């Protein structure tokens, strides 16, 4: 049976409904603010994470006394020395080994590939997950090597006051403009012009290169970071040079790709982070109170020891 109500009761009902709507909006607003705050805190902690401890998974005594270095490789590591290299899986089993003779071996890894070169000389060895792939004899003395995920190798060389950067395929042939990729085979610089190249970094896809130059030609110390693109974008600019940044009175001893499209420029007292899908764009800079003693990085993170 329907119950009759008067106007006051109806107005009271309307007021209660309005209050309910206000309370509901307030609750929803509070929940949204809380969700945004939680997400913000999570992202801040994710990108500003500080590690204070570690866990030792496995320890193995190194019997060799002439080992030159170790690098992470395929979930395990590669150990290289003056007379050869050994790749070891994360459980300690042997993946492959290779022999050579070098006076001052330097190395780099990317994906399934390893490159080892004799610094100050002209020999390069390339390995993949199956072992030895090829060797390269360069025309000039080697300063630095980098390798990409498909086996392309970038080599920084010098002769007198002239520096050369060449790209090689994994079989040892030179990458050149005549190939289907249409990429540049060589970058030539002179100490009196660009400065002295002290480090290079090659992207994972082998299409982008970053070079750190150190110059005194203007009467003061200047570090110049050159960005080169060997893909389609680089075809439209002179010498494949797509951007550059200068740092006065600062030495930039190392540059590195974090993944394929992010570049970290390590200065002696800080860092500069660049995005480089094709051309460089500065993302962030930070100057530290102390000088950096050493750095660590992978495809997602980077850090330093002061």
Question: Could you characterize the architecture of this molecule?
Answer:
- This protein has one helix and 22 strands.
- By secondary structure, the chain is mostly beta strands.
- The chain has a domain at 191-306: Methylamine Dehydrogenase, Chain H (7 Propeller), CATH 2.130.10.10.
- Strands 1-2-3-4 form a four-stranded antiparallel beta sheet, with no helix packed on it.
- The radius of gyration is 28 Å and the shape is globular.
- The N and C termini lie far apart (83 Å).
- The model is unreliable at 1-7 and 178-184 (pLDDT under 50).
What features would you highlight for this structure?
mainly beta; 306 residues; four-stranded antiparallel β-sheet; disordered N terminus; Methylamine Dehydrogenase, Chain H
The gross shape turns out to be globular
The name of the CATH architecture of the domain at 191-306 is 7 Propeller
**Spatial separation of the terminal alpha carbons:** 83 Å
For the CA atoms, what is the radius of gyration?
28 Å
**Strand residues, percent:** 35-45%
Low-confidence stretches at least 5 residues in length (pLDDT < 50)? 1-7, 178-184
Q: How are strands sequenced across the largest beta sheet?
A: 1-2-3-4
SS class: mainly beta
The top level CATH class name of the domain at 191-306: Mainly Beta
- The mean pLDDT is 81
Helix content: 10-25%
Name the CATH superfamily assignment of the domain at 191-306. Answer: YVTN repeat-like/Quinoprotein amine dehydrogenase
């Amino acid at each position: 049976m329907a119950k009759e109500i008067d106007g006051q009761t109806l107005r009271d009902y309307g007021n209660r409904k309005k209050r309910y709507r206000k309370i509901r909006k307030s609750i929803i607003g509070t929940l949204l603010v809380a969700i945004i705050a939680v997400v913000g805190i999570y992202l801040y902690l994710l990108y500003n994470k500080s590690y204070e401890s570690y866990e030792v998974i496995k320890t193995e005594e190194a019997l060799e006394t002439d080992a030159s270095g170790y690098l992470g490789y395929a979930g395990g590591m590669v150990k290289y020395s003056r007379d050869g290299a050994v790749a070891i899986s994360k459980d300690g089993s042997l993946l492959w080994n290779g022999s050579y003779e070098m006076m001052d071996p330097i190395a780099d890894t990317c994906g399934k590939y390893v490159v080892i070169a004799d610094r100050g000389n002209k020999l390069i060895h390339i390995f993949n997950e199956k072992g030895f792939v090829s060797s390269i004899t360069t025309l000039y003395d080697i300063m630095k090597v980098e390798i990409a995920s498909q086996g392309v190798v970038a080599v920084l060389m010098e002769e007198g006051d002239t520096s050369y950067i060449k790209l090689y395929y994994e079989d040892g042939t030179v990458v050149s403009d005549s190939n289907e990729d249409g990429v540049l085979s060589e970058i030539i610089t002179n100490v009196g012009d660009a400065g002295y190249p002290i480090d290079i970094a090659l992207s994972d896809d082998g299409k982008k290169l970053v070079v750190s130059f150190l110059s005194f030609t203007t009467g003061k110390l200047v570090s110049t970071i050159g960005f080169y693109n060997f893909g389609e974008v680089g075809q439209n600019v002179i010498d494949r040079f797509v951007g550059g940044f200068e740092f006065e009175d600062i030495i930039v001893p190392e540059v590195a790709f974090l993944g394929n499209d992010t570049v970290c420029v390590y200065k002696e007292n800080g860092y500069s982070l660049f995005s480089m899908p094709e051309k460089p764009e500065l993302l962030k800079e930070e100057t530290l109170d102390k000088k950096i003693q050493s750095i660590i990085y992978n495809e997602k993170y980077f850090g330093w020891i002061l």
